[in-house]
Amino acid sequence: MLQVKNTANKLQVLDGRKYHANSKIAYLMPEDADEADRIQKQHMVLKYNLQGNFKAHLREELEEGIVVLDSGCGPAAWTFDMAKEFPNSKFHGVDITLNEFLKGDKPDNCEFQVANISEHIPYPDNTFDYIYQRLLIMGLTHDGWDNTLKEMFRVLKPGGYIELHEPNFYKLSNTGPFVEKLHDKISDMLRSRQIPPDISLHLEDRTSNAGFFVKQVIMTSMAVNHENKAGELLWQDYRHAYMNIRPIMAMQNHDWEDIESYKLHIDACGEEAKEKKTCLNWHTCVAQKPSQ
Description:
Residues 63-174 form the Methyltransferase domain. The chain is α/β, with parallel strands linked by helices.
């Protein structure tokens, strides 16, 4: 049974797109159908590049039936995919807003709640066997990461696992001046908002400091706009994401207030990535809560 609890969310409209305007919410991407559609497509690109939906050694447990949380689930592409693959398991999703994707059929073994995970994950202690979270690099401050991991530790059962996925947007491999300028600007913007742009490099330390035992640390190099179809699709997602965040970027970088100038720069990044064979380094951290 799909269950949804909704709470009011303060939004601001910039260039016709809706963005969070609540000071307690750090998430920078828009909240609308276009962004939800982008994330749905992104899921398939990541699934291909990562050769599956998860890295934790839990396939047998998932097939038998466990309780899973998708933390910061967004439009729930991962949640729905996993729920269909593992019908004996129960999947819960939590996000700051659950609006655009709540249409059509949903797997019966899914349930959703609206909450700010950096403040509180709305479940009792020791609820979940497995917690999955990815791509909150533009959604959690330094304190937000610490609070979220503390909440994960609380709601995870002893012996349960968490799995975190974040890209290294701070520094890509094989870059040129166009890509470097873009990532320097966004890193500066994130730092100004107390959001760590290099969080992918510190997942192991942060999870360990939160009390977890780190079991796996994996780095996957993903081609951007070269090598194969996956590289092309990753670039399309990359471009789409940066177009979606442009109104926020332009608030601190006035030379990108003009959308045409910004598009030219983004397109130059794509050509540069193809020529220099740029790669995005994707970091995965799997950790376990102590059994005692």
